[in-house]
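All the exercises in this workshop are built on plain-text protein records. A record pairs a protein's sequence with a compact description of its fold. The structure tokens are whole numbers drawn from a learned vocabulary of backbone shapes. Once this layout is familiar, the rest of the handout is easier to follow. An example says more than a description, so a record of this kind follows.
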Amino acid sequence: MIKDIKLLLITFGFSALLIAGFLFLQGRISGGEESVNVPIKGVEVNPETYNLGDVPIKGGKVYKNYEVKNVSGNTLKLKKIATSCMCTKAKIKIGDKETRFFGMEGHTDKNPPVNLEFPKDATAVVTVEFDPATHGPQGVGSFERIVYLTFSDPAGVKELKFFGTVIN
């Protein structure tokens, strides 16, 4: 009986440590990165959104550019780029610096920081890649996707949106 209780306590303690370690790695316990969902002020986007219309599933990838202007009066720090879906990737070019394409974050998969300075009055170009075939035949139908530009100084997010309908 006492051996059973000791074994149960050891098993419970080990399980609790595993769960705590997993949550720590997920960033849900102190030391993890906090999510900032506040819209950033002083960042203008042209166009505000794209309507891609009908996008043939076998028509290949679609690329669109957004002009993003820093009208805040201060240099901003772009922390990271992420997208709302695995069918979408985005990159940014600020001056002579250009990132690689970044996609959706999920589970423990996080995009690395880009840590780019976005000077006041500068205009950057965000290139978005949408692949209508990513979801296969189940992906036919209307969609809306978002690119998230996350800033750290000051903290906030600018969302770039596009929508359309994937057709056969």
Observations:
- Residues 1-32 form one domain.
- Residues 2-26 form the longest helix (25 residues).
- The mean pLDDT is 86.
- The chain is about 15% helix and 45% strand.
